[in-house]
Structures are given as C-alpha cells and as structure tokens.
C-alpha cells in the first residue's frame, strides 16, 4: 500500500515536460503584443514577464501577459470587462456565476467568492476525521526529486461519493462531467508549512490517463489573516510594492473562496507562466483541491471504495437540491 501511494503521489505531481512550450492561444497584434481591444483597455494592462528564474524553474519561454488594472487589485475585475477572446473556453457562457471575478487576464486566473457556504467548508474539513471516507498520505505528494522537501502539508484523498458539494459546484462552473476530475483532495497546512514553486501540468508519460490537466480549482476552507497566499511567481496583480516594483499576484485565503487557473491551454500544452506556490501561514490553512482533465480520468481505488458513478449520483442530487446546473453525463460509461 505504501508503495502504491508513493507511485500515485508522484504521478499526480510530476513536473511538465520542459521542451519548447506551445504558447497559449490568445489573439495577438501584428507587432506581437497581446491585443485587448477597446473593451479591456481601462481594466487591463499588457506587460512582459521579467525577473529572475532559477535552474529548476527558469523564466517561461512565452512571457507576454495581461494583468488587471491596479484599481481592481485584490478584489478582481468584473467578468463583463474581460474581452470575449480572453475568456477561458471553459467559462464561456458561464460569466453570470455568482462571485466570479478576474484576477489576471492572460494567463487567466479567476476567483469565485462564496463558492462554498460556511457549512460546506466545515463539512468538507470534517472528512479528515473519517478514515473510511478519506485516506491521508503519510508523506505529502511532492513535485519532483529536486524538490522532495518542498511540500510540508498533509493531504487526504476523498471518495468521489463523499464530495458532492465540490464536484457539483465544479461541474456547474466548468461544464464538465464528474469522470473528468481527479480524486477530490483535502489539504491542511499547519503554521509555517508551505508548498514551494511548482507546476500543476503533468508530463507526457502520464497523459494516457485522462490527458493533460486543463484546470486547477482550489477552495479555501477557512480565513487566513497573515500569510498562506497562493502566489504566482511570474504574474503581476497591479500596483507596486514599497520598493516601486510590480506586485506579484498572490491570492489571500478567504473562507468559501475558490481559485481557478489553467495549467495548460485548451489544446493541452502546459503554460509555464502558472508556476505557483503555497506560502507559509501563521495559522492553519485548509483547502479543497480538484483537477480537471481533458478526457475521462480513471482513479485508483483510493480511498477504498471510491466510485465516480456514485460520485456523479451524489453530485446530481446536490445540484438538484441547490438548483445548480447538473453535471453533464459521464463519458466513461
């Protein structure tokens, strides 16, 4: 069992292939700058990613990006301000979702405030105490051998059928079936714990099961007053710091808030601009996390008895109760 868990952990969090990445397919002007059109000029600003990379994580090959205007810093920009060509394909036609805001236009980073109710946050956190419905990894999944000590949090795998609130709300937001999602997870960061820079895209050797990860969804289950941000090394949030340098995009945990970003483009090409980290907090931080794949994903039998079909039924019942759009039909059946 221990070996199986280590293999599964490595499979979930290996780094993407560091070949020449294909750029995210966003429209560009004849001079190579990203085009926003007249609609986005007052709310967004194009820039070129700069700064220092590292031997493990060099600067991305594709460095064009678009941040929100500093007047939207922190709270984000209304979706109505985003030019249609820059709305992620998974969100097109879904911009009326309550609490949806744009934190960064390209690569897209969005939040949904109120994604979980306070009660849903508490019930999901409580799964950590149920050994039949949640399986704790004795050693948290790490990113690669070179960053083997980079993650110090604890992770639980949750049975699909025991995460109806996460699956139903994720399917309603993204319009994808339950069998396209990886095993739902629960993560706890104790004071001082962190997860340093990493990518969420997976390498070519793992693409046989569901293809590439095309969306990352994190839900913060408690407020964190100091530290604990999800930070993006190469992205800007608008405005400058005390030294006059552009502020790095960092999302503060807020109870019930979802963070949504896209480790790869719509064609499955990894987007290295989404390099990110979980910063140390001075108090406990709890998150629910879920990854969406291009195609149906086959889970391991962890925890024992996990079942996508039962998870789909539970998510449909939850969606009906809360008047959400039901998940699309399973494709794997």
UniProtKB/TrEMBL annotation:
SMART domains annotated for this entry? P4Hc (SM00702)
Domain Fe2OG dioxygenase stretches: 180-294
- Mind naming one GO cellular-component term on file for this protein? endoplasmic reticulum
Q: Does the keyword Oxidoreductase apply?
A: yes
Q: Which residues form the signal peptide?
A: 1-19
Q: Which cofactor does it need?
A: L-ascorbate
**Which parts of the sequence are annotated with region: Disordered?**
18-38
What are this entry's molecular-function GO terms?
Answer: iron ion binding; L-ascorbic acid binding; procollagen-proline 4-dioxygenase activity
Pfam families in UniProt? 2OG-FeII_Oxy_3
Question: Does Transmembrane helix show up as a keyword for this record?
Answer: no
Keywords of this protein's UniProt record, alphabetized?
Answer: Dioxygenase, Iron, Metal-binding, Oxidoreductase, Signal
Protein name, as recorded: Fe2OG dioxygenase domain-containing protein
Lineage, opening ranks: Eukaryota, Haptista, Haptophyta, Prymnesiophyceae, Prymnesiales
């Amino acid at each position: 069992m221990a070996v199986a868990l280590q293999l599964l952990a490595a499979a979930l969090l290996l780094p993407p292939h560091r070949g020449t990445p294909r750029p995210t397919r966003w429209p560009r002007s004849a001079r190579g700058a990203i085009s926003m059109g007249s609609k986005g000029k007052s709310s967004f600003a194009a820039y070129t990613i700069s700064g220092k990379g590292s031997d493990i994580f060099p600067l991305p090959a594709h460095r064009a990006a678009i941040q929100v205007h500093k007047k939207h810093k922190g709270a984000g920009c209304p979706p109505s301000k985003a030019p249609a060509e820059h709305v992620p394909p998974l969100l097109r036609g879904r911009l009326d979702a309550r609490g949806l805001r744009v934190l960064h236009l390209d690569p897209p980073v969005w939040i949904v405030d109120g994604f979980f109710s306070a009660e849903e946050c508490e019930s999901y956190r409580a799964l950590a105490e149920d050994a039949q419905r949640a399986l704790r990894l004795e050693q948290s999944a790490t990113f690669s051998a070179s960053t083997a000590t980079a993650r110090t949090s604890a992770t639980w795998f949750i049975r699909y059928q025991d995460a109806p609130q996460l699956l139903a709300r994720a399917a309603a937001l993204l319009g994808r079936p339950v069998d396209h999602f990886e095993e739902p997870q629960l993560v706890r960061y104790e004071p001082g714990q962190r997860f340093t820079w990493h990518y969420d895209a997976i390498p070519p050797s793992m693409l046989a099961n569901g293809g590439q990860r095309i969306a990352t969804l994190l839900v913060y289950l408690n407020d964190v007053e100091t530290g604990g941000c999800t930070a993006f090394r190469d992205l800007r949030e608008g405005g400058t710091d005390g030294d006059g340098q552009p502020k790095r995009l960092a999302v503060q945990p807020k109870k019930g808030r979802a963070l949504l970003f896209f480790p790869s483009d719509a064609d499955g090409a990894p987007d290295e601009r989404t390099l990110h980290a979980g910063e140390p907090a001075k108090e406990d931080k709890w998150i629910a996390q879920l990854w969406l794949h291009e195609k149906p994903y086959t889970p391991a039998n962890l925890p024992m008895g996990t079942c996508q079909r039962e998870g789909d039924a539970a998510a449909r019942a939850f969606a009906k109760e809360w008047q959400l759009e039901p998940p699309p039909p399973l494709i794997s059946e």
